[in-house]
Amino acid sequence: MAGFVDATGGGGWGPVGTPALLASGRMEPRKVIGSIDTSEFLVALAASLGFLIGIGTAGIDAGWVLALLAGGLLAAPIAAWLVRIVPPRLLGAAVGGLIILTNTRTLIRAELLPVTGAAQTAVYALIVVIWVAAIAWSWRAHRRDTLAAKQSEHGAPALVVD
């Protein structure tokens, strides 16, 4: 799915793949980030080569390229630090909600979603409410799993807290 979104929309490998893999809970966050970053690099390299060969360098402002490069260099160590601290489920819910919120804003501004005024505010509010609920649900699931793991580690019967 992430590859399809990346190929058809001009981006999305990381934003679609990362929350999906994190939310599944089957991989450690560092492996998810490493796998996505590696694949993004290869996709970006192939896309850049195709762009440069097919279109040339006309219209590419070197200042913007350097700004994006600098931003990536600053963000990478912060992201690496965060994925060690934030539980994977919580990280997946937080990142997924942010992506949905920003993409909804983009769709509304591009007038692909015909929503204006109070309806626009209601759409944003609904997304935020669902996002907060998803984060709360993820946090409770993480706490439940952590408690169950600690209790099974000590040989006590698992107590599930709802």
UniProtKB/TrEMBL annotation:
<keyword id="KW-1133">Transmembrane helix</keyword>
<feature type="transmembrane region" description="Helical">
    <location>
        <begin position="64"/>
        <end position="83"/>
    </location>
</feature>
<dbReference type="InterPro" id="IPR002781">
    <property type="entry name" value="TM_pro_TauE-like"/>
</dbReference>
<feature type="transmembrane region" description="Helical">
    <location>
        <begin position="122"/>
        <end position="139"/>
    </location>
</feature>
<comment type="similarity">
    <text>Belongs to the 4-toluene sulfonate uptake permease (TSUP) (TC 2.A.102) family.</text>
</comment>
<feature type="transmembrane region" description="Helical">
    <location>
        <begin position="41"/>
        <end position="58"/>
    </location>
</feature>
<dbReference type="InterPro" id="IPR051598">
    <property type="entry name" value="TSUP/Inactive_protease-like"/>
</dbReference>
<keyword id="KW-0812">Transmembrane</keyword>
<keyword id="KW-0472">Membrane</keyword>
<protein>
    <recommendedName>
        <fullName>Probable membrane transporter protein</fullName>
    </recommendedName>
</protein>
<dbReference type="Pfam" id="PF01925">
    <property type="entry name" value="TauE"/>
</dbReference>
<feature type="transmembrane region" description="Helical">
    <location>
        <begin position="90"/>
        <end position="110"/>
    </location>
</feature>
<keyword id="KW-1003">Cell membrane</keyword>
